[in-house]
Write a structure and sequence with these properties.
Elements: H1 3-20, E1 35-40, E2 46-54, E3 59-66, H2 75-81, E4 87-92, H3 95-103, E5 107-109, H4 114-133, H5 137-146, E6 151-156
Parallel strand pairs: 3-4
Antiparallel strand pairs: 1-2, 2-3, 4-6, 5-6
The chain binds coenzyme A (COA).
Amino acid sequence: MDSNNDASTDLIWLKSIMKQELDLKPPSLARMRGKAIITRDENGSPTGHAALTNRWQGIEINTFVVDPAYRGKGISHQLLSKVDASRAFCYTRNKKLQSALVKAGYRRAFFPGVVSSVNLILSRTGIFLWMLLMFDFKRIIHQIKNLPNYKLYMKTKFD
Ligand SMILES: CC(C)(COP(=O)(O)OP(=O)(O)OC[C@H]1O[C@@H](n2cnc3c(N)ncnc32)[C@H](O)[C@@H]1OP(=O)(O)O)[C@@H](O)C(=O)NCCC(=O)NCCS
């Protein structure tokens, strides 16, 4: 398989999982461009994915998913061990991911910084408008309902 085929297979796999996971952004916004970490099984098929997005004041870890067939096998630790950034943060309400983040040295934080916040507000507003345009009300309602449960975890080179 050439790398273009690899990328399109990865994207199909990622979209199929994002469709089921309402905490994530809509699958129509899935991209394999940019910085992403992918774990694979012995046949080269993807098992886990994390996107690393530049938020101007650090990297946001997002679209963090493990294939349902591979959950509970420690793949979240593998993904996090590959994050290489001097300032990285992640918003999640998933207890497994929270536990994996703490084990990887991330600490609970309450504010990602002014510059990161501006970037996050702009990007989240864009995603919200896109979901409205796509009539993705199920995802919108799910995310608004769970908004108070998302917690921020952060790791800097000083941690
Ligand atoms: C969250 C997710 C990525 C975790 O991946 P995973 O590979 O199955 O997780 P792991 O097997 O590495 O387990 C992570 C840790 O969670 C812990 N854990 C398991 N169940 C737990 C629970 N109910 N509460 C707290 N911690 C729990 C485990 O102890 C494990 O740590 P250990 O390996 O040191 O024992 C995966 O469940 C997933 O893709 N969920 C759907 C998408 C999602 O919600 N992503 C987060 C978006 S914000």
